[in-house]
Amino acid sequence: MSGFKPIKIGLVGIGRAGYGMHLSEVGKTEGRFEFVALCDPETSRCEEFNKRYKRSCRIYSDYEELLNDAEVELISLALRSPEHADYAIRGLEAGKYVFVEKPIAVSYEQALAMKAASEKYPGKLFLRHNRRFEPCYNHIREIMASGILGNVYQIRLRRHNYQRRDDWQTLIECGGGMSNNWGPHIIDHSLRLLESPVKKVWSRLRKVAAVGDAEDHLTVIFEGENGRMIDMEISGGAALGEPVYRIYGDRGALVSQDESELQLRYINPEQKLMDIKAKKESPPITASFGNPEKLEWIEKTIPVAPSCGCEAWHIWNHLYDAIRNGVPFPITIDEGVEVVKYTAMIKQGTEFENR
Ligand SMILES: NC(=O)c1ccc[n+]([C@@H]2O[C@H](COP(=O)([O-])OP(=O)(O)OC[C@H]3O[C@@H](n4cnc5c(N)ncnc54)[C@H](O)[C@@H]3O)[C@@H](O)[C@H]2O)c1
I need a surface site. Which of 51, 105, 130, 254 has the fewest CB within 10 A? Predict the structure, then answer.
């Protein structure tokens, strides 16, 4: 016996996310959840799911049937992006808890409609920004908070690869494009790492290697009211990648090439910097360029290991704690709506002063 009272899930969309991620992640939650019903117009996918799950979840080809299944407490939405908002609202109206995949909505209007529904049915809607619990992201936040890098003024985030991708995620009419695909994760990271309201956002979109009509290369610059800049780029058209994270502070920097290690170079926090002034006159003819004082650099490379011990799939444990124990879910509806708001701006490939 696990000691948990399993939350009974109706899973909608048995594809790469539903079958490939939700099924295996729930398997790690030590009995906090149990699938009882599946919904996909291609019911053979549900049968495949049952085989792997080694149980007989009820199978529906129509969402309305799943909504009428009284045993389903939580609807997990893992179907294509354009349906998320409407399906989430219908789930709430049917009295269910709803866990919705990213992008939570494909337009700001849809996101606002979801927010209105969540206000009508409070505590029932949960957003799957699972990368909020990634180890590297969390370790970096801990290091930033420790102050060893000083004032962080610029952050570069990259997700680069090269793929001649040909699925619906490359088609505009299906809600595809990098801004809806990887965008919600890295826009969410950007907004959190900014640690301040957005002052300006600038973006450019391009199609490079994917074969649909949606963008597969996205560059965005956020400027915070605190002066910090986040420069993020997601690309399916970059044959050579850049480090996933580069964090620059006024006392040091951090680089993570592939999220397995963190390379750090920072001035010893014990070292008090001299109070020196710039001089107008020419330096002595034999003077060198650079530092008048010796900087005590600390240089090290450490494995990614945040003190929270968190991993992306832990979002399910937070979901359980929210539903069963009333613990606030770490991702708020307003944060999710804000991600969609900036995604909509970014898609226009232009520059905005925030208002
Ligand atoms: N959080 C993450 O890390 C993550 C990762 C991958 C995908 N996703 C998101 O998950 C969603 C699904 O992506 P995917 O790659 O699994 O797509 P997919 O095409 O592999 O799977 C979608 C499934 O939904 C089914 N479907 C279509 N219409 C349906 C309907 N009306 N009712 C029920 N099922 C329906 C399809 O038959 C298919 O089985 C996307 O919105 C994507 O952005 C999130």
Answer: 51
